[in-house]
Amino acid sequence: MYSRDAAEASALRNDDELLEAHWSYMDRFAASMIARGPTLAADRETATGSLHVVELPNADAAREFVEGEPNNRAGVYAEHSVWRFENLLGRTMWEFSGAADEPRFLIIARLDGSEVSREPVPARALSAELRERVILYGALYTLDNDRLVGVAVAMQAPNRELLDALLEEGWPGFAFVPEVEVHNWEFGGRR
Question: 26 in a domain, yes or no?
């Protein structure tokens, strides 16, 4: 699930009681959490949205997860994108061993339905440089009919310029994707 913050979200995000409710809710899903964390504005401090990748048994459970999430119930989010995620790396963000001091980015590449049916590039086909920087990589499918709608990638890179170069030169298949969003991102969880 990727959620985009509402315009008035910053006041809600600074509410300690709501923050604790959010973390407590996420604690219930700790065993099935693949990745989580806020997307950030250019200052890398102001939250603009949230990513939650959770292994759940079915589409109804995913909808219940979204509906029950305290930030959602309080109005933090203006909109949600909820997909089935196929974890092409087979690991969680906590298993990533990259440097903690480099910026992290979330890339959501959405198909518009007009492309020839293509499957995402297998993780083993990525260059060695990309593989060591990739935190999360997976195919995005609709919840109900399993139609491929894009890919999600979380990476770390020293700066946005290197990230863009890696995506343009080293990521096979990104050229066919019409809509690519790049967000500043960081690992989520209790601090």
Answer: yes
Do 79 and 92 lie in one domain? The reply is: no
Tokens 């863009």, residue?
164
- Please state the separation of Cα 95 from the chain's center in Å: 16
Gyration radius of the chain over CA positions: 16
**Which residues form the domain of 77?**
2-83
Amino acid at 69: E
- Which residue type, as a one-letter code, is found at position 114? S
- CATH code: domain of residue 133: 3.30.70.1060
Residues whose CB is less than 8 angstroms from the CB of residue 180 and which lie 6 or more positions away in sequence, other chains included: 107, 108, 109, 110, 167, 174
176 and 90 within one domain: yes
Q: Is residue 190 part of a domain?
A: no
Q: Is residue 191 part of a domain?
A: no
Q: What is the DSSP string of 103-122?
A: -EEEEEEE--S-SPP-PPPP
Q: What angle do CA 55, 98, 153 make, to 5 degrees?
A: 45
Q: What is the pLDDT of residues 100-120, one digit of tens each?
A: 789 999 999 888 765 555 677
| Residues in the chain where the model's pLDDT stays below 50 | none
Q: What is the pLDDT of residues 120-140, one digit of tens each?
A: 778 888 878 888 899 999 999
CA 91 to chain centre: 14
Beta bridge partners of 183: 106
